[in-house]
DNA sequence: TGCCACAAGATTGGATCCAATAACAAGACC
DNA sequence: GGTCTTGTTATTGGATCCAATCTTGTGGCA
């Protein structure tokens, strides 16, 4: 995965705000910017050598991807999720991603399958946490890559992005059996994909996500009460009523 | 539903960009701004009496809600959805909204139930298309209003917003049986909600959405090939690979 | 001591001006 | 005649400055 700020200058990154969004996206997903971190426009502008305008735009772009949240007159930060939030995100994933996968299924080429095989092989032959996170994401996204619906793909990616930090926090808790279980699940999914069997795809993918959710939410210590990062501040009350 | 631009000036609309976003949101959902319409920053700034900066921000806000889409150096427009897009949005709804409803179920008060009863009564005693669209949305959103998860609620609302225009276009095709069917479905959902029965809630809600999808996508004439509105322009190729 | 008013600093929001890019049209060259 | 090039115009993107808002610290007062 090439870092966004190293792409072809004539790509969509020729627009400064998208370039900045790419850098911040990488930093958030890599864990350099943790939940609760406030993203000051001044600071970012200085650090990235631009004015605050493209930084503002970038923060909006990231907000639309679920990677930041912003409060009027108060700024933007990396969202802090409660254990309930993460639980719900995973429940959403359990329902949505099987759809993404079945929509993708008939469009996957043999090249895709070969690539999946390679990725899974590598997953089984390494043990670095960050490497696993990258490969795992790559594995699933490759199974989804045939999905012809851009909105469905975007939503899927958004759900992954939003929970990335907690997935990482969970992974550092070593568990001797986990690798074996994950690999078994991946192999079953890969086999169902190879057979183009939508029912088994849904079954094993939903199971994979569900089991991860159950394990993840069994560790409440991964979720700080709320902002311990910087600035104690009353969060705006939740807009409950949908207007 | 009070129009956004008439809210308390000390509300979140005290920020100009959100005020503008509110106005445009209403205009898009009301059908005044149709799919394919380009949203020129200059024009909007002049019409709404502001500079282009808050307009830009507003367009980003709307983009994060799925109500507009923007292309670098080319501007923003109301998205034009193909019949496949709408089909997929509805499939997403079939999976997600039953979850929203079951999450909401245990938090719904008797007041909510009384309100649902009133809304459904009114739905059955009127025949105006726009009034129906408002009431129908109100009915479903009220059933969801107990959902404690803000992201899930936001995603649900987003899916509704994105397909609003096509729902309206469908409604103007008169069908003598439709009202009866919709009312029967709503009554079953309402009953299941009253009984706090998550299984029946899921069943009847999923059926309701699915039947609507099937009927809607049986009318390909509702979906123009692509932009017939203004400006023929090559759309940027879809970013297929998810990086 | 506890609490409210008020002022100073920090931070975001908005307006204006300028630069960069894209769509469009006219003309040169083959 | 067709295609490539080259200005022109419309439109978006970015920089700088100023205004509005929020946070925080200080002091008065009961």
From TrEMBL, chains A, B:
<dbReference type="Pfam" id="PF00392">
    <property type="entry name" value="GntR"/>
</dbReference>
<keyword id="KW-0238">DNA-binding</keyword>
<keyword id="KW-0805">Transcription regulation</keyword>
<dbReference type="InterPro" id="IPR008920">
    <property type="entry name" value="TF_FadR/GntR_C"/>
</dbReference>
<dbReference type="InterPro" id="IPR036390">
    <property type="entry name" value="WH_DNA-bd_sf"/>
</dbReference>
<dbReference type="Pfam" id="PF07729">
    <property type="entry name" value="FCD"/>
</dbReference>
<dbReference type="InterPro" id="IPR036388">
    <property type="entry name" value="WH-like_DNA-bd_sf"/>
</dbReference>
<dbReference type="InterPro" id="IPR011711">
    <property type="entry name" value="GntR_C"/>
</dbReference>
<keyword id="KW-0804">Transcription</keyword>
<dbReference type="InterPro" id="IPR000524">
    <property type="entry name" value="Tscrpt_reg_HTH_GntR"/>
</dbReference>
<feature type="domain" description="HTH gntR-type">
    <location>
        <begin position="14"/>
        <end position="81"/>
    </location>
</feature>
<protein>
    <submittedName>
        <fullName>GntR family transcriptional regulator</fullName>
    </submittedName>
</protein>
